[in-house]
Design brief:
alpha+beta, Alpha-Beta Plaits, 2 domains, five-stranded antiparallel sheet, 29% helix, elongated
Length: 178
C-alpha cells in the first residue's frame, strides 16, 4: 500500500478532529500518523495525516473530507515536494558504564539530552521520520524504557503556502436579527 500525506485546514472548533477521524474509520482506513495544531491564524488548525491506502479510495475520502462543514481545504503533499519532521522522546535505561556510548550516538544524530538520572537518560530528537527511527534502532540494544513520538508534521516546499479560502460572513435572516 502507498503512504499518503494529507494537509487539512479546518476550523479550530471542538469536535472537528472526531468528525474527520470518524470519516476514515467508516471507510475502514487506518490513520498511521496524525498531528493537529493551530496555524498562524488561531481560528484555523492544520491536521497532518499519514494514511496508507491505494489510489482511488483516497480520492473518495478526500472528496468526502472536503464536504465536511468545518473542513476548509485538503491537499495531498507530493513525496518529493514536502518537508516532514517528527519529534521523539526516548528514555534509555543505561547506568554510568554505558552512558558515554549512548551520548556518542545521540551527538551524531544531534539529539538533546533532556533528563538524566542514575538509571536512565532521556533524549529528544527532531528530524525526518527515518532519522528518528534510525536513532531509536541504534539505542534499542541499550534498553528503551519509554518512547513517545509525536507523529509527522509536514509543509509543502517553496514560498507558496496552504491558506484557507476567504470566507464571507453569512448574513443573519431578518427574523434572527430582530
Amino acid at each position: 500500500m502507498a503512504t499518503h500525506t494529507l494537509s487539512v485546514l479546518v476550523q479550530n472548533r471542538p469536535g472537528v478532529l472526531a468528525r474527520v477521524a470518524m470519516l476514515f474509520a467508516r471507510r475502514g482506513f487506518n490513520i498511521d500518523s496524525l498531528a493537529v495544531g493551530e496555524t498562524e491564524d488561531p481560528s484555523v488548525s492544520r491536521m497532518t495525516m499519514i494514511v496508507s491506502v491505494e489510489g482511488k479510495p483516497l480520492e473518495q475520502v478526500i472528496k468526502q473530507l472536503q464536504k465536511l462543514i468545518n473542513v476548509l481545504r485538503v491537499v495531498e503533499l507530493a513525496v518529493d515536494d514536502k518537508i516532514e519532521r517528527e519529534l521523539a522522546l526516548i528514555k534509555v535505561g543505561v547506568g554510568a558504564g554505558k552512558r558515554a556510548e549512548v551520548l556518542e550516538i545521540a551527538e551524531i544524530f544531534r539529539a538533546k539530552v533532556v533528563d538524566v538520572d542514575a538509571d536512565a537518560l532521556t533524549l529528544e530528537i527532531t528530524g525526518a521520520p527515518d532519522k528518528v527511527s534510525a536513532l531509536e534502532h541504534l539505542v534499542a540494544p541499550y534498553g528503551i524504557t519509554e518512547l513517545a513520538r509525536t507523529g509527522r508534521i509536514a509543509l509543502g516546499r517553496g514560498g507558496a503556502g496552504l491558506k484557507p479560502p476567504n470566507l464571507r460572513p453569512v448574513p443573519l435572516a431578518e427574523t434572527e436579527a430582530s
